[in-house]
Amino acid sequence: xxxxxxxxxxxxxxxxxxxxxxxxxxxxxxxxxxxxxxxxxxxxxxxxxxxxxxxxxxxxxxxxxxxxxxxxxxxxxxxxxxxxxxxxxxxxxxxxxxxxxxxxxxxxxxxxxxxxxxxxxxxxxxxxxxxxxxxxxxxxxxxxxxxxxxxxxxxxxxxxxxxxxxxxxxxxxxxxxxxxxxxxxxxxxxxxxxxxxxxxxxxxxxxxxxxxxxxxxxxxxxxxxxxxxxxxxxxxxxxxxxxxxxxxxxxxxxxxxxxxxxxxxxxxxxxxxxxxxxxxxxxxxxxxxxxxxxxxxxxxxxxxxxxxxxxxxxxxxxxxxxxxxxxxxxxxxxxxxxxxxxxxxxxxxxxxxxxxxxxxxxxxxxxxxxxxxxxxxxxxxxxxxxxxxxxxxxxxxxxxxxxxxxxxxxxxxxxxxxxxxx
Length: 422
What we know:
Distance between the termini: 86 Å
CATH topology of the domain at 228-369 and 388-421: 2-enoyl-CoA Hydratase, Chain A, domain 1
Oligomer: single chain
CATH superfamily of the domain at 228-369 and 388-421: 2-enoyl-CoA Hydratase, Chain A, domain 1
Number of helices: 11
């Protein structure tokens, strides 16, 4: 028996629905923030001294300019004039025979006016090295970890290196800039980026006692151990969250930590975020479920989708507390290495009056750009990372230059000692 015919109104409804779906898919293909991105960087960038044609170099710089303009919240109504001016200036300044290094320096100068700590252009090299001895920098004096004052690195004065760094840096705060500068001086490719000749077996540093060569070794690929772990020092429980990774491992550490806290009768805990590079905000939310607070305010966020900005306002969240929540004091330890979602972690607790922050201002500000998009430039192979969201701190202040200020400001390496003695 043949199927009954579909009447015309129903056919029209189905056809219209299918048509609208196809239009929506077509529109999304043009506005999806992730269009053209890569999940991970798999192919190493070309060597810094690899030659490019001038056309290839300009195409790579245009890729940076175009993707920034079409994705970043700061470019919603067109790229800021500082970026556009830098783009034209850097294109005009390219040599006739540019190298990958020339493109890297030019692209860095282009995006530097937007102080977005997540935004970076850099070579991807899984075999990269760094010095086995680190540096510290206070904005004026560079020192080796052993304490010796450094006057030059690879034959270039510290003042000249610092000046060049500030031409390229996207650091959101002075503390973050100082931290990045000291860290980058350990890396031979970053020294080339800053104008030092490099090319030796190590990194040459000049001190009052003469010149010495720092050995290099394969660069650490980030924290490789547990996502989080805990210990007890005196009457304080210390929870170290190495990365903001939502996982069963993290959940298990929280359960074990707060169970041990309860069994010991501990009433003071410290969450150590001093070396945490970030991850996902859900890690902070999960931590709050272990605190005896009925509700809390979350961050606001503006999300760029093509020419549109979707604004999500802060909301009052009901806290789904565990059956036996913790009711004691909470401290959060921060440093200039605390970054991204780890800053949000500290802001969530401080902004809701749930914790006392101890240490130094973190690497980026609570109101800041975030959620990264990864690209790889077509000719140089340089990694290019930008963002498409603007997060607003818990207290609602939209000022992206305002730091997260510790309640108790001490050098980061003394933060835990400060909690123990308080």
